[in-house]
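Q: Give me the 3D complex with zinc ion.
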Amino acid sequence: MHLARTAAVAALSAILLAGCAATPPPGAASSPRSATVASSSPSAARTTSADDAVDQVVAISIDGLNPDAIRKLGTAGTPALHRMLAEGAGTLNARTERELTRTLPNHTGMLTGRPVGGTAGHGVTFNEDNGSTLRKTTGHYVAGMFDVVHDRGGSTAFYSSKDKFDFLDRSWDGDHGAPDRVGADDGRDKLDRYVLDTEPANVTRLLARLRSKPDDVSFVHLAEPDTAGHASGFMSPAYLDAVRAADRQVGRILATVGGDPALRKHTTVVLTADHGGRGVSHDDPAKAFDYTVPFLAWGVGVARGADLYALNAGRRERPGTRRTSYAGTQPIRNGEVANLVTDLLDLPDVPGSVFNRTHLLVR
Ligand SMILES: [Zn+2]
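A: Here is the predicted complex, encoded as structure tokens.
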């Protein structure tokens, strides 16, 4: 990210042909931030996907989005999600964390690139803000994608629609975030903006920010489908209405990015869900309708109308409908968001992360 824009655009096709290129394109000017990374980070020489045009990523999580709702509502009911499928790369057969199909565990996975359990797990088995932190939960500091971006001078935002995410904000705030030992000291608070508000208000804030001074990474949580699912049943008419409402918010984001030449050339949008759901709940991690989620990418550097499993043939196993373990070739998981975001921004993987270390190809 933050290469001189003209150089980055001119060099883009060449880089893409080269596949995972570790070498910057000839003539590409590095910003001071890139220079800082190169001089101070041992991970800076890792191979990266070729996407130097990406200056900012908007990552969206739609809480409780069962992919069946996208199929059922079709293009008419979910035009934005179908726009992402048609113009971007995606699958409606991605997976949650294996252990749990609940909100806080899966969002922690998305932001840290970790499973719930095991020695590399983030340890969040609870689903409410218990007043604690990730460090207290696991006994060691757990970094997220916000650490990687913020410690390299980038700006970060988390637009939340549930107060349980106060747990994550606290884990990475000025008191609990890790000291920044990469380049210049950008402080311990890894989230420049953490906002708890309704979905439309949060998206309005995000759009204003995108138009004025886009954050390097913005994470947007849209809770409508989960809220309606608990009240009226997942896949019920009220739930489907809530999916339409979430789609409208996604549509606002796509329209703003797609309608602004500068944003369009430098922004990638990533979208997944924490879990699906059918009937009264989404809590059984053995049920396909709970553990199957969409995973979509759209914007600069993303293939048009591509199936993510086809793009990653041999590296990701299309899992059919079965529940997948963490052994062997992996399906695409919602926990890949963290390292997809850092990869798109040409930054190192999240320290301690497990998911997407081999870098999902989105084109
Ligand atoms: Zn729920």
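A quick observation: The longest strand covers residues 292-299.
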